[in-house]
Amino acid sequence: MPKSSNLVLVILAFFSIYVIWGSTYLLNKIAVNELPPFMLASIRFTTAGLLIFVIARAMGISLAISKKQFINTIIAGFLFLTFGNGIVVWALKYVDSGFAALEISAQPLVVLLLMRIFQGKKIKPMSVVGVVFGVVGIYLLVSQKELVNQENSIIGMIMIFLCMISWGYGSLFVGKADLPKNYFVNTGYQMLTGGMMLMLSSLIFGETWTMPTVWSQPVQISMLLLIVFGSIVAFTSFNYLLKVVSPEKVATSTYVNPIIALLLGWYFLNEQITTQSIVAAVVLLTGVYFINTTKTFVIFSRFTGKQIISKKPEAEKNDANN
Predict the structure, then answer these.
(1) What distance in Å separates the CA atoms of residue 221 and residue 30, rounded to the nearest whole number?
(2) Which residues span the domain enclosing 79?
(3) Which of 89, 104, 168, 195 could link 37 by a cystine bridge, Cβ 3.0 to 4.6 Å?
(4) Model confidence over 263-292: pLDDT tens digits?
(5) Can you tell me whether residue 310 is helix, strand or coil?
(6) Helix, strand, coil % (nearest 5) of the chain?
(7) pTM for this structure?
(8) How far is CA 181 from CA 176, 242, 246, 285, in A?
(9) How many domains does the chain have?
């Protein structure tokens, strides 16, 4: 348990990973209705990466990394940000923000299956139950007539799923890759290189770039919030919590983010919350719960590209007694 003097910081940090991460779907949805998706994501991550470097230098942290580490940050930046996030932003042009958040909440399921395929990890009985719930939940989610009838919604759903595979494979990659030890430096390089690749993608696809001065006020505010809070504050909060509370408590953001996204999309954008969406959310998040209650927790950060594997406290106690 954290000390009482740190209780306020812990509460604020949980607020960040619950509400701020959950709100990024809404903010991206608002911005992508006016801005080209790859341009949007490029500005967000390139700016955030540069700001992180400025903060790191102000804190006296060295930015020096090896050539191998630099190459690995480029690979991680592509898997997590260039493809993994850039395509999600593109897909938000065709699907609701709440739906995207719900579909992405199945990420632990994808990671589990990829660990089985690429690493030969056995899927434990509780996780099998979680996979079954997850598959059923995803089916209920994507089979809604209201969604399927929307133009290009199926393409959006498929691309989001491919992004989940990219994130999942990225989490396995960084688990073994040689990356900068300092998480601030690691994230800064991933965001900067990922943002630069998004800029290149934007130019290849012929997107028209505009100055922030011509953006509408809602888009300006959304971009500012995405850079400062979505990319820097929430990331710092995530890493702080990993040091002061147990990993499974941090993992609860998996359950809260899609609910926050659904409510914000409904309130600000009048996105419809159907009964089937609610049922799908319950089933899907139940599956994620079963996966996260196994002895090993895989906590995946969209921002750090870090995979933290930790045993539950009960398991640690049993190991100590053996």
Answers:
(1) 10
(2) 4-321
(3) 89
(4) 999 999 999 888 998 999 999 889 888 887
(5) strand
(6) 75, 5, 20
(7) 0.84
(8) 13, 15, 21, 33
(9) 1
